[in-house]
Amino acid sequence: QVQLVESGGGLVQTGGSLRLSCVASGRTFSSYVMGWFRQAPGKERDFVAATSWSGGSTWHADSVKGRFTISKDNAKNTVYLQMNRLKPEDAAVYYCAATDWGRQNWPPMSSYNYWGQGTQVTVSS
User: Fold this and answer.
1) Percent above pLDDT 90 for the chain
2) What is the pLDDT of residues 17-30, one digit of tens each?
3) Residue 46: which residues within 8 A CB-CB, separation 6 or more?
4) DSSP conformation letters of 95-112
């Protein structure tokens, strides 16, 4: 069992920055993939970024490439999402998720079986 808790959301102006944190407790595995997703009111949940727990490979959605960066600290069981040059369309509830994905390809959203409660990011225009 894995429990995930996000934090770091808040209100920022367009062009501002935030860093989200996701602390994992319980069992973690070297094969785990950690991901960030977001969902705005009335919209579907979308993939933002992912990183392998073991190793340093990362994957970012096209919409956030060059602005957002996912990173992790294995010793602290924490995954981060650094968000820079925020835009109004980035406003959403951001969720941290995990999957014990053991394959070499990136997992689909449906494979993530552990989810945090979400943290709100609001971007004023």
Assistant:
1) 82
2) 999 999 999 877 67
3) 37, 38, 39, 61, 63
4) EEEEE---SSSPPPGGG-
